[in-house]
Fold this protein.
Amino acid sequence: MRKRKIILLLGLVIMLIAVTGCARRTTGKVDGVEVRVEIEGEGRVAGLSEGYNYVQKGSVVSLRAIPAEGYEFYRWEGQVAEPKESTTSLKATRNTEIKAIFAKDVDLPIVYPEMKGINKQRIDGLKYEFEAVYDGDFESITWKVLDSKGQVITEGKGDPFTYEFRSKMSGKAVSVIAIGKFYGKESSHTKTLTVKKLERPEISSIKIRDLGNKKLEFTVEEYSGKIDEFYWEIISSSQRLITVGKGKTFTHQFQERDVITAISVGKYWGGEVSHSKAYEVK
């Protein structure tokens, strides 16, 4: 009887250990992902082993590609943070594969990209957008804009590049240079263009409407060109400033009879234009 109890107790202990082990393995699979590491050429990877690796899901794994003697690191393939850097990282969000590529010092397969041209588009007024045309893949693209004397007007980064010229450059020739950088070398292209000459706008007509009881409505009736903002000045017969206002239409309540002068002023890229009209307030 005693032996049977001991055998039964040992059986329960073995079953408990087996169940616990299975639970741990199951939990590990739910929380982990597989990362397969491949190596092309001669070298090794620090941070993960070649072949299949099992890492915690969501963790960030630091990686370093170490070339063998006579080889150099070329690039990574796969979802790493910096594919062109030997030291990088991988965020393990799902099962994935990465490859470290090494090449011999004498035959690194580096193909340098080439800047081919520049496309331009005038967005509005004196504002332009420039886009580089090139073969390959640059690490970075920078820009320079020069005046006709070769003086730098502005510099910028990224592609496309947007710049709004000042009014003094209207109708002037400029040079736009796109510069691409790759592994310490540069390729550039220059495009010469004439900044669009904007015509001076004009206010040609003002309409004044009597709303009754000495209340008048002032409206810019006709104008040409691009005017960014309208404002008003109302002057009395004694040349005293009565009031000011904004907008294409403006309303004011007068207190007394007078012969006033309404001046509409329009602001544009090159300065201001104006138009005036006299009117009797009754």
Q: What stands out?
A: Residues 18-29 have pLDDT under 50 and may be disordered. The two ends are 126 Å apart (CA to CA). Helices lie at 2-31. Residues 202-281 form a domain with the Immunoglobulin-like fold (CATH 2.60.40.10).
